[in-house]
Specification:
Helices cover about 15% and strands about 35% of the residues. By secondary structure, the protein is α+β, with helices and mostly antiparallel strands. The chain folds into two domains: about 250 residues, Neuraminidase; about 260 residues, 3-Layer(aba) Sandwich (Rossmann fold). The protein has an eight-stranded mixed sheet with strand order 29-30-32-31-33-34-35-36, sandwiched between helices. The protein has a four-stranded antiparallel sheet with strand order 1-2-3-4, with no helix packed on it. Helix 1 packs across helix 10 and helix 4 crosses helix 5. The longest helix is centred in the last third of the chain and has 19 residues. It is globular. The model has no long low-confidence stretch (mean pLDDT about 95).
Length: about 625
């Protein structure tokens, strides 16, 4: 007897899902071993730092209650680094001060005073640089700074040396080999880094600076005392470029892309949305060769000669959300995930051709996780890219006459993308007979600037049109049951969920995770990093106020006539609970079936094991009630 879709028995429990999703946040070679940071969902998502020594033994270096997490730009990143002698330098999530933990010491000591936030830590040649954000004055102040390692700035904020400051934003500090200059990326407070960002080099002795011509620069790295390698998308895709920077302030000389125009990888990106401070898209190896991520939907890893010649694409198991954390000789540490491997951290040797997992990265059974199928649908604004994860369970005899229910997933950002890599939450659904379609709607990264700019001024229009076209395409192709398609998304993805439900006609239910519901309220309450994000996505205020009203799902909540599940964190500073509660109240007033779950202590995105498990169970239970199946525990 066949088992109805949604009721398939699965070995993946919600509790197992919660503890399996270990997040890697940076990795380094130092003191003869490998260091990395990983989340501990059972400890409220605390980020601990681990060390694997030369003998292969693994030690927890940063223990509870310490938590390596930065809140610079709210999304953080680069919350820790380690010196060559094994001295750990980190930002504590509680006080946002930088601390030093000496090798073998039992307790860290503070290096900065309370008040400002720090992130993007970099230690080179015994010097510590960081991105600093101080939200106490008005206007708010941000800077690239150097922090003394002797603790003299712990009680004296003036002891922190400011390299460059302003009202804009900064990222990616990098010290030149001779220690004379610092390169970094900066952008205006009214722009987002993928719209326009400039790379700079500052003379640390004189303060003289040179701006490197770029459109949306990322990750400057020194090749010598007067030349940097960086990513820029002036051609429409992020590619690698070189610029020679004279010692005296002068216009830098920029060379053509480091990947040649006849390369098969030109139509791909080495770069992406700069949401967090620690991500790295390329590494210069000791012999000058370049290891680089190339993204066109999914990620590939390529090896370039020093002059930019493409040597080869590497055969690796990971293909999504890649970050090249560090390199040593011909070896590199890579964080990410893959189509048939769990998220993790790997070490690869480009000369030996070896790849092995340091943390996580466990292979998954292809019978349960056959891999995503890239698909493209015709939309009103052009092709819509997506990844289809079909239901898969080798222990179930599925009814061949029945089409499965589907969840159409909308990523957040909206300037972000999904890579088609396997994820525990996807398998949680597909192993139970529910398909998942991940949509990279217009506005997503990973397909070039033109695809990304489809969303300019059109948030709430293009994204909605694209997810509706993808869902309809699923139904028309006979892949999904047209009466049982739900839409799921968080943050900006939650906005698209609710906006699509307002439009109506395709989706039978909505799963909204801390989604935006009122643009004017968001403009008033959101944090600094995204304060002017809406200017590009919708329009500037007050001129575009009527557009803000017309586009907001809350304005048209009376058009939502299908059940909605709303999940929200109580400490969310990006999309505050007031947004979710407003749509909850509007649905309640009209008697629309809905459920609202507030998770205490959670911020923007769920990190705690109990929350992750409870959210997964709530979604499955909710879908079962709407689509008429009984989930099997």
């Amino acid at each position: 007897m066949s088992t109805p879709h949604g009721s398939w028995p699965s070995p993946l429990s919600a509790a197992g899902l919660a503890v399996a999703g270990t997040k890697i946040d940076g990795a380094r070679y130092a003191a003869g071993g490998i260091w990395w940071s990983e989340s501990v969902p059972q400890e409220r998502g605390r980020m601990r730092v681990m060390h694997r020594d030369a003998a292969g033994a693994v030690h927890e270096v940063l223990r509870a209650p310490w938590n390596a997490r930065s809140r610079v730009h709210e999304y953080g990143g680069g919350a820790w680094t380690v010196a060559e002698d094994g001295t750990l330098l980190f930002v504590d999530g509680e006080d946002q001060r930088v601390h030093r933990l000496d090798l073998g010491a039992t307790a860290p000591v503070p290096l900065t005073a309370a008040g400002p936030r720090y992130g993007g830590l970099l230690v080179q040649q015994g010097r510590l640089f960081a991105v600093r954000e101080d939200l106490r004055p008005d206007p708010h102040q941000r800077a690239i700074v150097e922090i003394p390692l002797d603790g003299s700035a712990a009680d004296d904020d003036a002891a922190v040396t400011t390299v460059l400051s302003g009202n804009g934003f900064f990222a990616h500090p990098a010290l030149s080999p001779d220690g004379a200059r610092l390169a970094f990326v900066a952008w205006d407070e009214r722009e987002m880094p993928w719209e326009r960002a400039i790379a700079f080099a500052v003379d640390l002795a004189t303060g003289a600076r040179s701006a490197i011509p770029a459109r949306a620069a990322l990750q400057p790295e020194w090749l010598s005392d007067d030349e940097v390698l960086f990513a820029d998308d002036a051609s429409g895709r992020w590619n690698l470029h070189r610029a020679r920077i004279p010692v005296q302030p002068a216009p830098p000389i920029r060379t053509p892309p480091a990947i040649r125009e006849d390369s098969p990888f030109v139509d791909a990106d080495t770069g992406g949305g700069l949401w967090v401070l620690g991500q790295r898209w390329f590494r210069v190896l000791d012999d000058g060769r370049i290891l680089a991520v190339r993204t066109n939907g999914s990620d590939a890893l390529v090896l370039l000669d020093a002059d930019g010649t493409l040597l080869r694409e590497l055969d690796v198991p990971f293909s999504g959300d890649l970050s090249l954390e560090d390199s040593l000789g011909s070896r590199a540490l890579v964080a990410g995930q893959g189509a048939q491997v769990a998220p993790g951290l790997w070490e690869l040797d480009v000369d030996a051709g070896t790849v092995h997992a340091i943390r996580g990265g466990d292979p998954v059974d292809p019978a349960w996780v056959p891999g995503a199928r890239p698909v493209t649908f015709d939309g009103p604004h052009g092709p819509v890219h997506a990844f289809d994860h079909a239901p898969a369970n080798p222990d179930v005899d599925a009814d061949p006459r029945a089409l499965p229910p589907y969840v159409v997933h909308v990523h957040g950002g909206p300037t972000a993308h999904t890579s088609g890599a396997q994820a525990g939450w996807i398998t949680y659904f597909t192993s139970r007979g529910i398909g998942v379609l991940e949509v990279n709607y217009g506005g997503s990264t990973g397909y070039g600037r033109a695809y990304r700019e489809r969303l300019d001024g059109q948030w709430g229009v293009v994204d909605v049109d694209d997810v509706l076209a993808a869902a309809q395409g699923l139904a028309d192709a006979g892949i999904a049951d047209p009466a049982r398609i739900a839409i799921r998304g968080g943050s900006a993805g939650g906005w698209t969920v609710l906006s699509a439900l307002v439009r109506g006609g395709v989706f039978a239910a909505g799963l909204d995770r801390y989604g935006v519901v009122d643009l004017r309220l968001l403009a008033e309450e959101t944090h600094d990093f995204e304060r002017y994000y809406l200017d590009g996505l919708v329009g500037p205020l007050p001129e575009a106020e009527q557009t803000y009203i017309d586009r907001s799902p809350l304005t048209h909540a009376d058009r939502i006539d299908v059940p909605v599940l709303i999940l929200q964190g109580s400490e969310d500073a990006v999309v505050p609970p007031s947004q979710s509660e407003a749509i909850r109240d509007a649905l309640a007033a009209r008697g629309v079936p809905h459920e609202y779950v507030l998770f205490e202590g959670e911020g923007h995105g769920f990190r705690q094991a109990d929350t992750i498990a409870a959210a997964a169970e709530a979604e499955l239970r909710f879908l079962g009630g709407v689509f008429g199946f009984d989930p099997v525990p």
